[in-house]
């Protein structure tokens, strides 16, 4: 009985090519991740009220998905960060 499916595709595996510079999308991901981690850590060690910070980050991400912009993207655009 043969082994079916081994090496079925001869296409090369996709590689991750680093990009230069910081565009709006990269900065938004950086800020969202940082605020989520900081808010969660503060909630664990200081006060549960700090869970509002990750909740606001999540609401901001939902806004970005729903309408295509968020307050931080507008601010970064005004600061001259490239799309």
Structural account:
- This protein is mainly alpha-helical and 83 residues long.
- The protein has a domain at 24-78.
- 55% of the residues lie in helices and 0% in strands.
- It has 3 helices and no strands.
- It has helices at residues 24-45, 52-67, 71-78.
- The longest helix has 22 residues, at 24-45.
- It starts with 23 loop residues before the first helix and ends in a 5-residue tail after the last helix.
- The mean pLDDT is 87.
Strand tally? 0
Q: Oligomeric form of this entry?
A: single chain
Radius of gyration: 20 Å
Approximate helicity band: 55-70%
* Main beta sheet: none
Low-confidence stretches: none
Q: What is the residue-averaged pLDDT?
A: 87
Number of helical runs? 3
Gross morphology is extended
Structural class: mainly alpha
Order of helices and strands: HHH
Strand content range: under 5%
The end-to-end span amounts to 54 Å
Please provide a brief summary of the model.
The protein has 83 residues and is mostly helical.
Task: Spell out the blueprint of helices and strands.
Layout: H1 24-45, H2 52-67, H3 71-78
Helix pairs in contact: 1-2
Sum up the structure in keywords:
55% helix, 0% strand, mainly alpha, 83 residues
